[in-house]
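Box 4.2: Ligand-aware structure prediction
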Amino acid sequence: MKEQLEQIKKSALDALESAATPAALDELRVRLLGKKGELTAVLKQMGKLSPEERPVMGQLANSVRASIEQKLEERKAQIDSAVLEAKLAAEAIDVTIPGQEVCLGHQHPMNQVLQQIKDIFVGLGYQVVDGPEVELASYNFTRLNIEEGHPSRDRSDTFYFTDDDSVLLRTQTSPMQIRYMENHKPPLCMLAPGRVFRKDEADATHSPMFHQIEGLVVDEHITMGDLKGALITMMRKIYGVDSVTRFRPHHFPFTEPSCEMDMQCHKCHGTGQIDGQVCSTCHGEGWIELLGAGMVHPDVLRNCGIDPDKYSGFAFGMGLERTAMGRLKINDLRLIFDNDVRFLNQF
Ligand code: PHE
């Protein structure tokens, strides 16, 4: 029995020494000291010993048990600290490694140009206002002198909500002229940017949704000269002091007289040609149409309770996408709405 105990002790200590994980240690504890363990089995045979041998063997068995227990504690402490070391090493943070660059976004190019235009007009004393995209036909058309039957009210051009064609998605920001004059008396200076909608197929220069910026000034003695001054000031700020613009007669039902403003093509400098080829930016015109404008029609003033004999005004409506495309030299309208960051990052 003595040899048996010595043997148990030796193999137990060896096994403990080579155990490497907390789980292996636990397993050993059960195998060595548990009820079904080797030591317990030996102790069960103590009854067969002579009375002289019994205390000697008992003492020896206790000391074997104590050695195993001590070794267990020792190994447990070693393994726990090794596990901790490994964990600390694996989770160590090297504070000297350069950080990952944070990728900052920026304003969409359309908003950059919109912001610039707003800043210009706020500097000229205009109030920037917002209005409904779902609009009444009376504001979008009738009170702007666009009578029923006018081609621009056609169902093939306009998104209507109701069978009687009285509610629609605004096709222009001009209804904001009416809404503003209803609530403000002259002198007034208003700028109303916003989305407008037309039944257009999307291509390089068309989209069923685009943005316009409406401007309106009404006061005593406002003339076409004021209109030209405001618009030329804006163009020079956006496109540079040497940008060349021209005014061309046009017709709008809600302004009289009316005009359109063109900018000399920045690509071909007004020649309409590049290396003997038709300029692709202005299609050979030499000019790019920028906006519609005119003196507010007396009927429109009257529709809003403003006396046209005392007051006069001018209004303009410009396409934001078109302005941004010219300003940022973008050649396809759809790129503006795709929102591909590879495209947007360029601005
Ligand atoms: N609303 C007109 C358009 O969409 C532009 C315009 C606005 C013309 C104001 C004159 C005055 O074409």
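In the box above, the bound molecule is phenylalanine. The chain has twelve helices and eleven strands.
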